[in-house]
Specification:
Helix content: 25-40%
Strand order of the largest sheet: 1-33-32-31
CATH class of one domain: Mainly Alpha
Distance between the termini: 70 Å
Strand content: 25-35%
Number of helices: 15
Radius of gyration: 26 Å
Structural class: alpha+beta
Largest sheet: 4 strands, antiparallel
């Protein structure tokens, strides 16, 4: 009985410890904590911009790298500098990583001198120096399953792999992006899936993010070396650098077709940071020149685009972003020319009533819409959508708010909402019409005309409304203006996959991979990412409940992951916040940027008055950042120098062309 009692006590203690740990990890970042988040301390020791931060696995050490070519290891819990050493680099340090299973003894740095250095912190010495890259090294990645291995991404377009068990001070090329995208491509960031270390995500020039299977690449190379015919090729035999299935691309569906417009305005699209969620099922991307995007790696969806290859979709393929088993998806059809509504006239479908508390939220959103508070309306609709994901009216109303706000990507999100509303209610009149308008605004002019014609057939009483007539005139005017260069869009694959010319021509393999790309799940707006190419975005919380990102306005932004609503903005730097690294197990955040300091943030006591770093007008900050992203590069430079520029287009206050307030017409007002 004594033994039984001892065992029982041990089991109880074990369960309590496991329960306490689970409770701590589940609740270490909560909404009340986020709303109390404030500045705890500033760590001073660098003499230049702090470009990178890295926690050790236990969270009791924080490493930083700087323009001053030094790395510092801090005790962040006691705000102490434990170690400072010159890394041997001759230019700015952009990445710093602890090597797993090294007892926090080995630190790796990558810098603008094209070098990767390995340091032993116990003796403050650089023990390996790799000089294989030919351009700036932007990121280092490590993986627990590969304790002596790490990877680097550099602006020479190469992803290199290193093995410290080998005596050779060289590395091997794992991925050569120049073989796919030409000599001008630059690799900017990379990360390894924390749950399956065989998967490596890479961000580079352009809107596409790449996910690679490291094991497949290595197996392919081994089989090539062991093949008796290795090294013997004919003119018709081309050796693929990567095996089929080893790469999967992800892209925000509207960006490829927007790329020429961005290029004309000298607006660069580049992935500045990629990271996996703690459970490895999601990929977060900070897209320079655009917004922050989250991709679902489990429930993938094709882009909601209408310039797919000209072929009929067979059963089991993806229809309008959702997998269909019969070629039909809730009244939406894809045929050889892209989009088609279901046949026949529409009949009103009954709408499921919302619970009273959600009806109140919807009414609040409608009131915000009526006051032209588009972002507030979107956030309220999003809050309701999270609780009632099968309500067509909420999606239709949110689409109307997106179309009014007109921030970058809003028309594409509106298109997605329209399709969702129609899939839930095939007779949603406003969603049908808004869909045609979205297609037009997204430059899918021929598809917009086809969609409008289908709308008129489905809702003949609306065929001669002023809204329909106005959209019809816009579409036909656009078709007429494009007739001169129509030949540019014929042959050679979909327009959204074409290269932009110059020396960055893309290979046939790259075209296929881009065509097979998957779309995003969520989009986060408010920050600005145009000035630096190391700006991070991260998951915050053990369950990845929040998204955080730096910004060119010196602030960092925090969103709820599931609703995409902005919940907190804090001033983190006098100029630009680039780095945000959440603590592995506490509600504790380290940030850095242009200032030569590291800032630590945690929930402040309720008895403490929050300091002046809270940005109260989050909507105003977000609107200013949207203007900044769409400003002329010279104006942005002047803004960064402290000059105020007047006359920048707001890109969001004007009304939509599809609104008509007369009785019986198609209206843009929410339902």
């Amino acid at each position: 009985s004594v033994l039984f009692a001892v065992v029982s006590v041990v089991l109880v203690c074990f369960v309590q410890e496991r329960g306490a740990l689970g409770f701590e990890r589940h609740y270490h970042v909560t909404d009340p904590f986020i709303r109390r988040l404030g500045l705890e301390a500033e760590l001073q020791g660098h003499s230049g911009c702090v470009n990178c931060l890295e926690w050790n696995e236990k969270g009791d050490l924080l490493a930083s790298g700087s323009d001053d070519q030094h790395t510092i290891v801090w005790d962040p819990l006691h705000h102490k500098k434990l170690l400072s050493m010159h890394t041997g680099h001759t230019a700015n340090i952009f990445s710093v990583k602890f090597l797993p299973h090294s007892g926090d003894r080995i630190l790796i740095t990558g810098a603008a001198d094209s070098k990767v250095h390995v340091h032993d912190l116990t003796v403050k010495e650089t023990i390996h120096m790799f000089g294989d890259h030919t351009n700036r090294v932007k990121r280092i990645a490590t993986a627990p399953m590969w304790p002596n291995t790490f990877w680097s991404a550099a602006e020479d377009g190469l992803i290199r792999q290193y093995d410290l068990r080998e005596n050779s001070k060289r590395s091997e090329v794992l991925i050569d992006l120049t073989e796919y995208c030409g000599q001008l491509v630059e690799a900017k960031c990379l990360t390894v899936n924390p749950q399956d270390n065989n998967y490596l995500a890479v961000g580079a020039s352009g809107p596409f993010v790449r996910l690679y299977d490291i094991r497949m690449i290595h197996n392919h190379r081994k089989s090539m070396k062991q093949s008796p015919s290795a090294g013997v090729h004919t003119f018709c035999d081309r050796q693929k650098p990567l095996p089929d299935g080893a790469a999967q691309y992800y892209v925000a569906g509207h960006l490829p077709v927007k790329l020429p417009d961005y290029n004309n305005r000298l607006r660069v699209l580049v992935a500045t940071y990629v990271t996996f969620s703690p459970d490895g099922t999601e990929l977060l991307v900070n897209m320079g020149g655009e917004q922050v995007y989250l991709f679902d790696l489990t429930y993938k969806q094709r882009p909601y685009t209408f310039l797919l290859p000209k072929k009929c979709h067979t059963s089991g393929e993806v229809q309008n972003g959702k997998t269909s088993t019969n070629g039909v998806s809730n009244g939406i059809h894809l045929h050889s020319n892209g989009f088609r509504l279901s046949e026949g006239r529409a009949h009103v479908s009954p709408q499921v009533e919302l619970p009273p508390y959600l009806e109140r939220i919807k009414q609040q959103a409608n009131e915000a819409f009526a006051c032209q508070l588009w972002t507030q309306a979107i956030q309220l609709y999003s809050k309701a959508v999270q609780k009632a994901p099968n309500n067509a009216m909420l999606y239709g109303n949110r689409a109307a708010a997106y179309m009014k706000r007109k921030w970058d990507g809003d028309h594409y999100d509106a298109l997605r909402d329209c399709l969702k509303a129609i899939s839930l209610n095939p007779c949603h009149l406003k969603a049908h019409f808004r869909l045609a308008r979205c297609l037009f605004e997204l430059k899918y002019v021929a598809e917009a005309l086809e969609c409008l014609d289908d709308f008129k057939g489905k809702f003949p009483e609306q065929a001669h409304s002023s809204a329909c007539d106005a959209l019809d005139r816009d579409i036909n005017a656009a078709l007429f203006s494009k007739s001169d260069n129509a030949e540019d869009k014929k042959g050679g694959g979909p327009i959204r996959l074409r290269a932009t010319g110059r020396k960055d021509s893309i290979s046939e393999d790259e075209i296929v991979l881009r065509e097979r790309s998957y779309d995003y799940k969520f989009r986060y707006c408010g920050h600005c990412n145009t000035t630096t190419d190391i700006k991070e975005a991260n998951f915050f919380g053990s369950n990845a409940q929040y998204i955080v990102s730096g910004s060119d306005d010196g602030s960092f932004f925090i969103w709820e992951k599931e609703t995409t609503n902005l919940v907190r903005v804090l001033q983190g730097d006098e100029s630009i916040v680039n780095c945000l690294q959440p603590h592995p197990s506490y509600c504790f955040l380290a940030t850095s940027g242009i200032d030569p300091v590291v800032r630590l943030w945690n929930p402040r006591p309720e008895s403490e008055t929050l300091n002046g770093r809270v940005v109260v007008d989050m909507e105003g900050a977000s609107q200013a950042n949207q203007r900044r992203m769409n400003a002329d590069p010279l104006e942005v430079m002047l803004l960064n120098m402290g000059y105020r520029i007047t006359g920048l287009t707001s890109g969001g206050a004007g009304g939509s062309d599809d609104e008509d307030s007369s009785e019986g017409q198609v209206q843009c007002r929410p339902s």
